[in-house]
């Protein structure tokens, strides 16, 4: 069953509808259908009829039905979604790591489009778009009031054509236009380098078709450069997820053969599964890439870096390595995307992505709306993590699924107040200082968290955060 679960990645312009990438089961499994609620269906038919006869102008039947399906599905949780013909095609193409667009991961916030992150090396990245930027206009059209899919359609286009996005950047308190040329995005999901003799850094920016092969190739290159490696930092910060079989494969690279990586549970029999570190759960037709992995990597001391942008498949890897006591997890609490989505075709060119299960770490912990709590909490910089309160996680999303493990807690009013205070402080600094607050590039010599990870591997003192604590699950809002 290892090939059945996948993460829905790079929809449209790289949109991760609702929040971030989602694990999905690519099969059609049908159980016994419950009796239809006739009274409610009669009401639906009555509303349909009233719109057709009484609405101010004629409405197309297909649009009414499509909107009804879309609303029914999207009202369930942040990750269930209806695909029309175009978005379904884009969804199917997405996991290859290639698509035409500007190269941004986006979600919706307060009626605007929010940039989750630009894809490294993409037109959006080269144009200077940043995590947290808000898109207020696409061309001359305001996005407020637009559905996420409609905004995506306006951003997408043919390769070589241009789109102008109007950006509001909170930390600089300014609005400005950016014109970006659309192109085919070929994401590079694995980067690696020797940060110093004996210590390597491998960054996975998302889990896609080529990730496991690329990882093995990078590991081989590192081994050739230094056969005496003493430590490895696996960097999953801001990794929104990707294909589950790739996540299982990356976990299998470091775990004993047959170790449990992740389990899933839901109403369907197919949703109750255990994925282990065995080739049948990650290898594809080309064979097992891990046969080429230098033996050194199976036992090398490891640190895994995560943050609030680490979601779904990256949380699976972090949870598997943490629960199997294979690596020290460092950074900040992850996003908390622990639900499984099943992709069901509704015909030859439409479908739905429906939440069908939750996934659990090897020890049985649900990540949903909680995330992976690091063994060592780290601030982003040596000066602290001043604006961490601004970052949203799964538990902040409207209609998020409950964790099911432990009691629901009241929404954290103190956190909301801290978030508002941080926002105001950020705006005040932007007005007064006129300088850009920018985090160091991941993997650079100024990367504070990477330096702490290296200290951990060397047995040196680590500057752990004195302020970061575990965020508990907030009560969801209907």
TrEMBL record:
InterPro entries: ClpP/crotonase-like_dom_sf, CtpA/B_N, PDZ, PDZ_6, PDZ_sf, Peptidase_S41A, Tail-specific_protease. It comes from the Bacteria. Pfam families: CtpB_N-like, PDZ_6, Peptidase_S41. GO terms for molecular function: endopeptidase activity; serine-type peptidase activity. GO terms for cellular component: outer membrane-bounded periplasmic space. Residues 88-156 form the PDZ domain. Keywords: Coiled coil, Hydrolase, Protease, Serine protease. SMART domains: PDZ (SM00228), TSPc (SM00245). Residues 411-438 form a coiled coil. Transmembrane segments: none annotated. One of its GO terms (biological process) is signal transduction. Belongs to the peptidase S41A family. PANTHER family: CARBOXY-TERMINAL PROCESSING PROTEASE CTPA, TAIL-SPECIFIC PROTEASE. This is S41 family peptidase. It comes from Comamonas flocculans.
